[in-house]
Amino acid sequence: xxxxxxxxxxxxxxxxEAVQYRGQALLIGAGAGSGKTRVLTRxxxxxxxxxxxxxxxxxxxxxxxxAAAEMRERxxxxxxxxxxxxxxxxxxxxxxxILRRDGEQIGLKSGFSIYDxxxxxxxxxxxxxxxxxxxxxxxxxxxxxxxxxxxNNLQGWREQLNxxxxxxxxxxxxxxxxRFGNVEELYxxxxxxxxxxxxxANAVDFxxxxxxxxxxxxxxxMVAEYYRHKFRYILVDEYQDxxxxxxxxxxxxxxxxxxxxxxxxxVAAGRQGPAWITVVGDSDQSIYAFRGADIRNIxxxxxxxxxxxxxxxxxxxxSTQTILDAANAVIAxxxxxxxxxxxTALGKGEPIVGYxxxxxxQEAAWIASEIARLHVEAGVAYSDVAIMYRANAQSRSLEExxxxxxxxxxxxxxxxxxxxxxxxxAIAYLQAIVNPADDVNMRRILNVPKRGLGARAESLxxxxxxxxAATFFDGVLHVDELGAPTRTATQLRAFRDLMxxxxxxxxxxxxxxxxxxxxxxxxxxxxxxxxxxDDPQDASRVENLSQLQSVAAEYEQKTxxxxxxxxLETTALVADSDQLPMQGEDSGSITLMTLHTAKGLxxxxxxxxxxxxxxxxxxxxxxxxxxxxxxxxxAYVGITRxxxxxxxxxxxxxxxxxxxxxxxxxxxxxxxxxxxxDWKRREAGMERMRGGWGNGGFGDDxxxxxxxxxxxxxxxxxxxxxxxxxxxxxxxxxxxxxxxxSSAARSGYGSGRS
Length: 754
Ligand code: ATP
Ligand code: MG
Known about the structure:
Blueprint: H1 4-8, H2 13-20, E1 25-30, H3 36-49, E2 58-61, H4 65-79, E3 87-89, H5 91-102, E4 113-114, H6 117-130, H7 140-152, H8 157-164, H9 183-200, E5 203-204, H10 206-219, H11 221-230, E6 233-236, H12 244-254, E7 276-281, H13 296-299, H14 301-304, E8 309-313, E9 315-316, H15 321-331, E10 343-344, E11 352-359, H16 360-377, E12 385-389, H17 395-405, E13 409-411, H18 421-434, H19 439-446, H20 455-467, H21 472-477, H22 486-508, H23 513-524, H24 526-532, H25 536-558, H26 564-572, E14 590-594, E15 603-608, H27 625-639, E16 642-656, E17 659-662, H28 667-671, E18 677-681, H29 745-748
Parallel strand pairs: 1-7, 1-8, 2-3, 2-6, 4-5, 6-7, 9-10, 11-16, 11-18, 12-14, 12-15, 13-14, 15-16
Antiparallel strand pairs: 16-17
Bound molecules: adenosine-5'-triphosphate (ATP) and magnesium ion.
The site of adenosine-5'-triphosphate (ATP) has 18 residues, from helix 3.
Organism: Bifidobacterium pullorum subsp. gallinarum
Keywords: ATP-binding, DNA-binding, Helicase, Hydrolase, Isomerase, Nucleotide-binding
GO biological process, one term: recombinational repair
């Protein structure tokens, strides 16, 4: 345990005040790099050591799993191993924990599945087919985006139905869409049906984790009371990126609206009434509006929480004055914000370096050569360098250049281990074992590996399930009543027996997920099918499956009370940012990532690339003031990641949709005062006609990245690299990052709406 002086001795007066503040609601609002996260961590240690709170009374929320792990590690350093027992997690992980414990109260059986985006899209496709929806026109993706909006704003499906399709009953057959002649009806019906089927499958999507927890707390006073009694201190980092549902969740957990209650096990502070809330954030760094983040949560904090105290931090400890000046100048172009003064004691430092390339390949090649130069001439370690871009698709030329130059790098967010077909198949088995009601996953594995149970067999089972209002697996269990042809019936029985045997095995070995994975891989025939194949790609698929088993073993080792369901949770909540090395760990490689993923991080050397109208700011944001403002905040986030050296680069030509498009310099470049930038090359080769921005962007997929296949010659997961994304080093860094990612997006984020 640290003494008080240790916790605040090296802080500035505002930081120290924030750490020690006693009161119900505290907002630490401050610009980038001013020590917000550091103060939050110290405050937790302070609450434990100086207010005398128990670790179990604290709930700390971070934006990513990785940030949570890091905070926990710091806390362990400050206060010792008790920190291991604290709830330090993302909103989503915390909600999973709550729902696992008490979800039964709202009809969620333990072992519920968490659907990732691909699962959700399958579900919407099934619903769309049943309702005769034109899914080319209303893509599953766009429908899901709408559903997500409803959820982020806590708009339930019942109210949508009441307003737009009052005579629809979830589960109803033969409903004719379109009688109301508006698209709201379609969304309302699909939303209701989607929730209905999730409930039938004992499954939730990412947004549901929050929404259903709110529902639980609101609907079950006993449960709400339990958590309000338990958590006396709630602390939230990156508060500017919370959405409405998360805001309500915090209020509910804290019991802000529940009035005064005596607290039997009083701690020194906060013995009466709601839990003490500390939020930290920077409204200039709000970059998740597209996922429902509501900047007003932070702007209105003082109104929302009576007697709230606000502490501003003004000293930046991260960057040079030049970098700060650039960031401040850019963000000043946003309207309606409170100006902040940020200063640093680090001095002016190096000028920002600018480079205008003729095209994206040349831009990438120059960056590679510049990094090589910094490495040799200035002794800059590769792991001190980050290359950031607006959209995942931009990584391609950068990767090619780094490979050519033989520089080790690590791509964050490009490959999604858990989204690979074979890995998803294996997970689908595990999911179906834990939760046989999970129709989406059960259907997925019915004929994987191929066992002669095609579309006809599937529809026979589905028909049974529909007429008996039963699950898909119930249909399989009743194979003898399906009237299936002999061969099909035989195969269905074999599938039934397989799943039953696997389930029994899983129950008997629940604490050993790695053994269950091994059993599933061998008994299901998944592994065998791949091993028999001549397709060279299948060899790397086998490696991925063996990797999955290692991940399970690793989980087993570091989790006090391992279980198969627990393992599945960790795989469901993985995010891009989890691929990053922990602080203090040297990956030995250059980091490539999107600006969204870079939130909260810092690097001595940062390259901001693709500074072109249409690339960054993104083409779709250029006509809309509020979207442009969000892009500018993203630029502010990017600039402020840099500690010592910042590079800004652009290309005059960039391929879009297979065509070379001419790109104008980004307006953000103009917004950086000229004297701060030292242009190594100012005008790009191809002189363009003036007027009209380069059009187009990267389409809908900008956050999604590519499928592995898009990478043509470059293969992931090559020998030596542990699943994945570490290829790319002529020297073979062999580092083991890239635990893939899934659209855990919600918790880990970074991978956007994927
Ligand atoms: P962001 O807005 O990007 O999330 P932040 O406000 O959370 O940034 P931190 O990441 O906590 O800032 O701190 C930025 C850097 O400054 C870190 O390296 C941190 O260790 C350092 N730092 C913060 N406060 C101090 C201090 N009082 N003395 C020395 N270093 C500090
Ligand atoms: Mg921070």
